[in-house]
Amino acid sequence: MSRVPASLNIDRIVSVAKVLSTLSLSRADVFDTRFFPPRDADTESVYNYFLAMVAIDHRTHLGNYVFSRKINGEVFTGSDLLWRLGMEVFNRDKSFFSPIRLSMLDPLTVRDWLVGDYGPVWDYGVRAYLLRDVGAKVVRHYGTTLRLFDVNDADELLNRLSIMIAYEDPVRKKAYLLMKFLVARGLLKIRQGDIKLPIDNHLTRIAYRLGIVRLEDWVVELIRQGVHVDRDLDIRLRLLVRDAWDAVVRVGKLDPIALDDFLWRLGRTTCIVDKPRCEQCPLRSVCQAYSRGFFINEHVHYLTYYY
Length: 307
Ligand code: SF4
Prior knowledge:
Elements: E1 6-8, H1 10-21, H2 43-55, E2 68-71, E3 74-77, H3 79-92, H4 99-102, H5 107-113, E4 115-116, E5 119-120, H6 124-141, H7 145-148, H8 154-161, H9 173-184, H10 201-210, E6 213-215, H11 217-224, H12 231-252, H13 256-269, H14 288-292
Antiparallel strand pairs: 1-6, 2-3, 4-5
Helix pairs in contact: 1-12, 2-9, 5-6, 10-12, 10-13
The structure holds iron/sulfur cluster.
């Protein structure tokens, strides 16, 4: 892998960590039954569900196509709708997510399942492919998810997951997201220090704007012009963003799960693409973009199932 055209800004990391440590960050509810199995669901079904749903938890919209739909009077958008649709199936037939069923999943089933107002999610065939691969690999190598998740530490789990195409991302976005859910539900014993943040568009955009990652000028220009970056540059940049948030967690002695929940909400509601709502942002006193009045988005890398 070539040189990284960016670096960590330690001063910014320290000041951002200090502000975050005053915010009393709290974890989201991982037992919200609109999206996740109930507390009394059996462990194997819960493992199956999270392994499958995280495997397909990547970008749901492309261009102007927004993945959105009203269900029982409530509008769900993006990954919220994805997980809501997941629970519709889980409530009807939780064995849908068993590895053996996934390994034989018909792409047309996924097309008819993941439907928003404008039709099926844009890459339903890719999602079917990822689910089939997850199911087949669990069946072949472990038999059940109970055995898959019987690990001693985070590295062992990361290694096991990396044989699955959905989890092959070198930045491990989906693997860390899965780890976060299972730890928060008390289904995985991992040292908190081994949990890293799952780096997606929101966490990348916020890191660039806060200035905890310092980008070289030509990368800023690529972003400003909306140029699509290749897989290699995307990975190098996201790895650095992950290091930056990891440093924030350590300096601020923060709970990585609560921090990820906070940043995800911030990215969806406040530090949004193009027009951030800085007046309502608790980080504006330490935000480089706010102080300079120059706001970039995340780098553009649409065609991926990594995040
Ligand atoms: S101050 Fe504005 S640009 Fe900075 S993190 Fe907050 S919303 Fe984003």
